[in-house]
Specification:
The protein has helices at 2-11, 75-78, 90-105, 110-121, 146-149, 151-161, 168-171; strands spanning 20-24, 29-31, 44-50, 54-60, 68-72. The protein is an alpha+beta fold. A 5-stranded antiparallel beta sheet has the order 2-1-3-4-5. The protein is 35% helix and 16% strand.
Amino acid sequence: MITAKRSLAAEFGHLMGFFGTYLFDGTRWLTHKGDKPPAIPGPWLMLDIYDSDLATVVYSPAGRGSGVAYLGFTPRTYFEDEAASPPTDVEREAKGLADWWRERRGGADKIAHAAKEDELAIYLAEDQDLAEIEFDEDEDVDDLDDGEILVEIKAARFLTALGLPVPEELSDR
């Protein structure tokens, strides 16, 4: 099933997916090596993009979330392996990321915080059964939103929703 998505990406001129790991240290983006969270005080956020299909967002402090969220596909869905990642809870991670956003800003009222939870939830991936995902190979790619095809575009939009600058490598996408 992922193959249908890849053929759509190829039509956009992306024969190989995008890979990159970035760390927002509270003030700027740094290229980050490895998948281990940094040993720095929060708030920080790490974004790891894998093959234009999934992005792992690791953040600290986690607030009411687990500290890990996904964009695009979750590892469980992408690799068709339940052991690839813990089960996701979009509502919980949206709350945690909104808490992270609020702390980074130095506070926010309840209405703004709740609105941010709702806004962030639309970007987050949930576990899916690939057999239940329907790809329409006859669909005109011009009618599709680029952020639904390439996770790096969705990631740039997500970072903007968090009020963060977008890493240079993602800003030209």
